[in-house]
Design goal:
By secondary structure, the chain is mainly alpha-helical. The chain has one domain. It is 85% helix and 0% strand. The protein has seven helices and no strands. The longest helix is centred in the middle third of the chain and has 30 residues, at 76-105.
Length: 182
Amino acid sequence: MNNNNLIERAVLTRYATFCGTLMGLFWLAKFTLVPLGIIIPPLMLLFLGLSLFVPFVAYVMARSYRNRYCAGVIGFGQAWIFLFLTFLYASLLTAMGYFIYFRFIDGGFILNSLEEMVEEFLSSLPQLQREQMGAQMRELINAQRSLTPITIALQQMSQNLMLGAIMALLIAPFVKRNVPKQ
C-alpha cells in the first residue's frame, strides 16, 4: 500500500468522523423533540420532518467530501464507505446521548406518557376491542419498561446503523461522479 492510499484513507476517516459528529449532534437535537413533543404535540411533527431531512444532510456532507478531498471525482464504493462511516460515528454519539437520557434524565417519562395515551385511546374503543388491544399494548409497554438504558442505547445504535447502511446505498449513486465537473 502506498503513501497516497494511506493519506486518502486517513482523510476519508477524519472527514467522516467530523461529519458523523455533526450528524450525531443533529440527531441528538432532533431527539430532544420527542419528550418535548409529548408535551407540545406539534414538536413531534417537527421531529418527523427533521427525520426526513437526514438523507439530504448526508448527501450534502458526501458531496462536500467529494468536492473538497476527491477533486470532484468519487466512485460508488468510496461514497458508500464515507456515508457508512458517517452514519457509524453519528450512531455511536447518539447512542451515548440515549444512554445518558434514559439513565439519568427520563425517569420513565416517555413510557408513562405513552401508557397514558394508550389508556386514553383504549377508553374510546368498544369493550371487546378494548380488552383485546389493551392486553397487547400493555404487554408491549411492560416489555419496554424491562429494558435497561444500555439496552435501549444499543438497540437504537444498531437500528441507526442499519438504516444508515441502507441510506448510504441509496445516496451513494447520487454522490458518485466519474469525471470532474467542468
